[in-house]
Amino acid sequence: MSEALEPAGKFTDTVGVLTSWNDGVVLITRRDGESVRIDERSLVAGKVVPAAPARRRGPAASYEELARVSARAWQPVESERLGAWELRAASGFTRRANSVLPLGDPGRPLDEALRQVRDWYAARELPAYVQTATGAEGTQELLCAELAARGWEREVSARLHIGGLAPVGDLDADVSRVELSRSYDEAWLRRYKRFGVPGPHVLKVLASGPSVWFASVPGSGESPAAIGRCVVDGRWAGFMAVEVDPEHRRQGLATAVMTALSRQALAEGASAAWLQVEDDNDGARALYGEMGFAAHHAYHHYRYGAA
């Protein structure tokens, strides 16, 4: 939609999903999940814009397929169904494992569903989060707008990237130091600094998934110089927890870890890859872009009653 701005004669465009038009205010949800409010009196023109074609640098995939694959790669300690929604909890370890995955209809009015969500998390002394997505066919711009209208606040946004697996496995990387294992060890956990003392809930989440592999590059001290985790699930290989000791960066270790894990996933029959990158991680986005990954959609965590 085009909006007139001062001084007269200047206009600005907003492109996104029209999520509401009430009380003289138009609400547009952009691809990145940001909501824009426009006074209808300032509207000059509007038109239907076809969805952008998928960038076919990598495999074709729907949002729902990727949401389910990524959820299986990072499973909660406990979960409960609410219609087609899944309520997930893991004692607070990561938002992904402690949020609602709303793929479909909760089977009741939205306000009632959200009340049950709040009660479920409150019973576990956890904040209530809903994970949503924007920017691709079948994503949840309307739900994002409904959550925002009810006081849920968007806290964290990231993008899920996809790409072909073979190009990563074919990289000319020195993988001689990369050690692969079916399980983590104490050294791997020391490098993965996402917790204090790893309780049983942390260990269960890390070990979850159809076919899980852990990568480690030994360092000079007690902690590895680099680590990574890969979950193979049918045609998909998901990568996460790729971390490098700051003292060993710019030595190609992240590439070596990705390459070694990719070759293992290829050996198991996978052909496509996915990973998640937070919006403020420019270094990771550049690295994975060089490997052939491209953003498929953005995902967000909405929290109820955020300060």
From TrEMBL:
CDD domains documented for this protein: NAT_SF
Record domain N-acetyltransferase: where: 173-307
PROSITE patterns: GNAT (PS51186)
SUPFAM superfamilies listed in its UniProt record: Acyl-CoA N-acyltransferases (Nat) (SSF55729)
GO molecular function per UniProt: acyltransferase activity, transferring groups other than amino-acyl groups
InterPro entries: Acyl_CoA_acyltransferase, GNAT_dom, Rv0428c-like_C
Domain of life assignment: Bacteria
Name by which UniProt lists this protein: N-acetyltransferase domain-containing protein
Source species of the chain: Streptomyces formicae
